[in-house]
Amino acid sequence: MGAGSSSIAAAEEGGCSSPSKMMVVGLGDMPESCVASVLVYLDPPEICKLARLNQAFRGASSADFIWESKLPSNYKYLMEKIFGQVPANLSMKEIYAKLCRPNRFGDGTKEIWLDKRTAQLCMSISAKALTITGIDDRRYWKHLPTEESRFNSIAYLQQIWWFEVDGEVELCFPAGTYSLFYRIQLGRAAKRFGRRVCNPEHIHGWDLKPVRFQLQTSDGQHAMSQCYLDEPGNWVNYHVGDFVVENPNTPTKIKFSVTQIDCTHTKGGLCLDSVLIYPSDLRDRLKR
Question: Which ranges carry the F-box domain (predicted)?
Answer without folding.
Answer: 24-70
